[in-house]
Amino acid sequence: MPQGSVLEVLAAFTRLGLTSFGGPIAHLGYFREEFVVRRRWLDDRAYADLVALCQFLPGPASSQAGIALGILRAGLPGGLAAWAGFTFPSALLMIAAAYGVASLGANAAALHGLKVVAVAVVAQAVWGMARALCPDRERATFAILAAVTLLIWRDALAQIVIIVAGGIIGWRLLRNGAPAAAPSSLATVDRRLAIGCWIAFFGLLIALPLARAAFPLHALQLFDSFYRAGALVFGGGHVVLPLLHAEVVPPGWLDETQFIAGYGMAQAVPGPIFTFAAYLGAVQMAPPNGWTGGMLALLAIFLPAWLLVIGALPFWDRLRRREDAQAALRGINATVVGILLATLYTPVITSAIMTPLDAALALGCFALLALWRWPSWLVVVAVGGIGWAVSG
Questions:
Q1: Kind and range of the H or E element at 161?
Q2: SS3 call for 195
Q3: Could you tell me the residue ranges of all domains in the chain?
Q4: Phi, psi of 274 (to 5 degrees)
Q5: Cβ proximity of 79 and 6 under 8 Å
Q6: What percentage of residues in the chain have a pLDDT greater than 70?
Q7: How confident is the model at residue 25 (pLDDT cuts 50, 70, 90)?
Q8: Closest CA to 337 of 66, 29, 65, 68
């Protein structure tokens, strides 16, 4: 991947942070359109490898993919710029919501239109990745079987099991095809730094609960709770909500009504749903709360994602260059397409397509994206604005 500037990365991800509605799978679709199709920072194969890596890791998959893309483009400062640009717009809205800024809860019609746009974005991502990563009968079958399995087996660990199975079967069956060119390098992180990040990741998991027991400081309790939520959840997105609920409501940090109100707000803002942590940190009763508590909770829940991505990138890069690993990755990439296909149906389509008019709008958005090559952010702004105007 050619190197770019930190400001370039910040500008690209800030626009995505302001317009990327629809949840983590939709975010991956927006990323592909922006960085594979439009900007050509990397190809479909390298992007699919990154997505597969982030699916393996606990934490917010779309945010981890964004951090990795920023690191690959402009080093560690680029990763920070990507995370800040993609995360801060929704985080600031969520903290403002904790102060009772009800007007930030966007118009219902506009929000529904944005969900419909997400259907088109994910559909375009599935179509484009399927053409690149499932060019033969075997890999197309992998993708369909992965989608069928995920639609039947709705479990938090299902994606991990499907990806592992795809890798094993690909390693056994997909070695006899035409040899693929060596993938472009993803290694922009020193291995010693990566090892240090792994040590820090597991060290904090052990040290924070011990420190919390020894020193009953609320700031330490807050940091420990949100760090563990970010470190131990697989599947990201909505999967983290039960963990956060268990950490903040039973101890009395906030009540059920405040939690549910924040969850509703989290559906109304663009960007990663993990920014719900900023709201929870800000709205809690005991200090640190407000802006200080919100930022502390936000940093705590995203810190594991940083440590895991930096820790994994150089080892993943070396592994994916081996011939047997490339065969496994052919299977993994095909199953990633299947996972996206299953997610296109639920929750993306099932939460957005309620009427024939919704289906017509989704098809129109797909045509604008796939045929007329409109940038995804422009479709988001146009449809959201139409929904706002019609309801107003």
A1: helix 158-173
A2: helix
A3: 6-177+308-391, 193-307
A4: -65, -15
A5: no
A6: 89
A7: confident
A8: 29
Tell me: cis bond preceding 347? Omega within 30 of 0 counts. Answer: yes
Which one has a higher pLDDT value, 334 or 177?
334
C-alpha 222/C-alpha 211 separation (Å) is 12
pLDDT band at 71 (very low <50, low <70, confident <90, very high): very high
Q: Which of helix, strand or coil describes residue 33? A: helix
CB neighbour list of residue 165: distance below 8 Å, 6 or more residues apart: 335
Q: Where are the alpha helices (DSSP H) in 215-355?
A: 218-232, 240-248, 256-266, 276-283, 290-319, 323-343, 350-352
Q: Are residues 258 and 96 in contact, defined by beta-carbon separation less than 8 angstroms?
A: no
The two three-digit tokens of residue 359, written as one number: 């289906």
| CA gap 193, 50 in Å, rounded | 19
Residue 391 has which token pair?
Answer: 């309801």
Residue 340 confidence class, pLDDT cut points 50, 70, 90: confident
pTM, rounded to two decimals: 0.78
- The C-alpha atoms of residue 66 and residue 46 are separated, in whole angstroms, by 14
